[in-house]
């Protein structure tokens, strides 16, 4: 009975942890919004409406995946929407004017997107420049290149593009497009990169504290460049998927998509200051944005601008939640390691030794407080071990 109780409390503790609580709130909010739509509007609570959230937002999910890695690393990327537009215009020119094959075009635009991101990452790290400024410059550069290539929208009539765009894959009573398959595949790859590779662990470490990561010998420079390379790759892939979705290329497409990607990432539970976040959370963040749009569409009487209003309110709420979680974490850290109190309660001699050690390191605390705290904890644990074994 006690084992079941302790197991249940441990799971509750994990759910209420500062790192997972925003994700749990996001999942609950998505379920609540979708259930609300099912109650309010006939035909909303169906498999096809749920799948259409992915069909209509597959490109945003891919872009948000790349943004998630950037924000976890402690950076930001404002160029993603412009890279999506540049990808669409390049594809349209290559297929309509140059008559290249789609299987040649896609690797080229993906390489261009990855190199674009790598260049920004290199500038950010090696010249110690702010990611906001560099990616803003990248946004202007990519938008400008779009209109150097073509001032007009280019419609794509290539049979292969049209066939991929119209391809549907049945799932139960519903169906999805090829874009959804690409997006979900990218999601699985991103989850593995974030939680199953050394690269992912380095990203979290750099986002938590870059200086500490550097002192630990982690490849900070390479990881930061790779993060922006991955974001550029995801932006280009999102552009490929967006081209399949609209079958055209235009320099004004995907305006504001960088803000939607940031909103989906933050609503998905990723901490803006870095170090905390889940790629899966961005999936639910995109789902919430899509659900809000679907609710307004089903209502029919509300302006589409209400989508922006609701998203803005949600962003404020999630930023406040993140701040509250940070304060809670700081308060727990200020209390001190619980091992010291437990050891002192078990043996008064441990408390005396702790006090003596604390007095010895007091003069150093002002300059090296974290180091003194670490020494204090190690001393307490060592004394407790000696006392119990003796």
> What is the CA-CA span between the terminal residues?
34 Å
The secondary-structure class comes to mainly alpha
Strand ordering within the main sheet? 1-4
Number of domains: 2
Inertia-based shape: globular
- Assembly classification: single chain
Q: Which ranges are low-confidence, i.e. pLDDT below 50, for 5 or more consecutive residues?
A: 339-390
- The arrangement of helices and strands along the chain is HHHHHHEHEEHHHHEHHHHHH
The CATH class of the largest domain: Mainly Alpha
Summarize the structure.
By secondary structure, the chain is mainly α.
Description:
The protein folds into 2 domains: 20-330, Orthogonal Bundle (ABC transporter involved in vitamin B12 uptake, BtuC), CATH 1.10.3470; 339-389, no CATH class. α5 (102-126) runs antiparallel to α11 and α15 packs parallel to α17 (369-389). It has a two-stranded antiparallel ribbon. A two-stranded antiparallel sheet has the order 2-3. It is 77% helix and 3% strand. By secondary structure, it is mainly alpha-helical.
Question: Characteristics of this structure?
Answer:
2 domains, two-stranded antiparallel sheet, mainly alpha, 390 residues, 4 strands, ABC transporter involved in vitamin B12 uptake, BtuC, 77% helix, disordered C terminus, single chain, two-stranded antiparallel ribbon, globular
